[in-house]
């Protein structure tokens, strides 16, 4: 977020990986072959740009929360358009809560993974870097990590969904988390060096 002025389109663009991860988590299984989470995110960013004048927040956390609300509305409308006869407000509230909960679990991963000062700096940069690291994982690792850690699906059910053994899924999760830590550590080191040069 621009430290010295209003939110810009470039500020919103930084959230694309984070929003794509959240959209992927909450896109109903029946639509996963028909609708790409990137399309939902694109619609979300377009809507956010259209309504940017209504945004009144000042912090990174407020911007993140606002974008999650825009994503939740976009996702609910998309799901409705792909088969619902009419809007069911009772189902939108749980979706909003699910989006909030998965974002909170992302934050918990960041908080739990602070083993060095450089990783603490990454946490301040926040969810955007973590989401980008998760999105960059190979498909199997990304699915295993998101199902197990973000959707909190039990390991045996993740194995069933991915058509693998629980041991294989545990390996995917372990390798995925190791890759995420490596990417975040490299990013923290790069940011630290960049900060020193300024």
Helix/strand-derived class?
Answer: mainly alpha
**What is the average of the pLDDT values?**
78
Ends apart, CA distance between termini: 18 Å
Q: How many domain modules?
A: 2
Which regions contain 5 or more consecutive residues with pLDDT less than 50? 85-93, 117-124
The CATH topology of the largest domain is: Rna Polymerase Sigma Factor, Chain: A
Helicity range: over 70%
H/E order of the elements? HHHHHHHHHH
Number of helices: 10
Principal-axis shape: globular
Radius of gyration: 18 Å
Q: For the record, what CATH class of the largest domain applies? A: Mainly Alpha
The counted number of beta strands is: 0
Strand proportion? under 5%
The largest pleated sheet is described as: none
CATH architecture label name of the largest domain: Orthogonal Bundle
